[in-house]
Structure of RNA polymerase sigma-70 factor, ECF subfamily:
Amino acid sequence: MQTNPVGMTNGYRAPRTASAANDRADLLDAMVEHRNYLNRVAFSILRHAEDAEDAVQAAYLSAWTGWASFRQQSSLKTWLTTIVMNKALTEVRKRRQTCLSMDADPLLMADAEWQLSVGQVTPEQHVIREQSVRRLQERMARLPQPTRTIVMLRFGQDLSLEEVALSSGTTRSSVNWHLSRGCKALRKSVARRRMLI
């Protein structure tokens, strides 16, 4: 077999090894060459095409910025696969935390409780709940615009994560990030208020 100058052997490109990976051009080539494979790896973990694409993009950014940390003990494909898997698994952990924190957050559950108990409250309870709703609206108004909109669509309009992503023109992983950020800010606001009381 003859090898041409660009590493092709009779039309077949030999797999890249760490010793051949000596500059970022090799990294870019590996990213292009293994993109479909890396998307499949991310999808097998996340089970959502857009989230898988986001995980691969985040992995590419990490690989590019962390190029100096590549120890050349494995192929670029193996290194990129490891980064993609870590990004996808991090997203899975974030989803679990988001789901748990949404269920446990009394502010986010207040609206549902309010709807269940309308007509079964005393005037005092009604005033207290109105004040709680007003404080929640004030706290919501302090959230940055994309986060506020996404939190309102999810909890105010009771849309699914996919519906929020479509309505806001963003990805599901971005929706999860904004929801996590918004809930965290609202919890901090409640904690500060409780400390003042």
Observations:
- Strands lie at 8-9, 12-13.
- The domain at 8-97 is CATH 1.10.1740.10 (Rna Polymerase Sigma Factor; Chain: A).
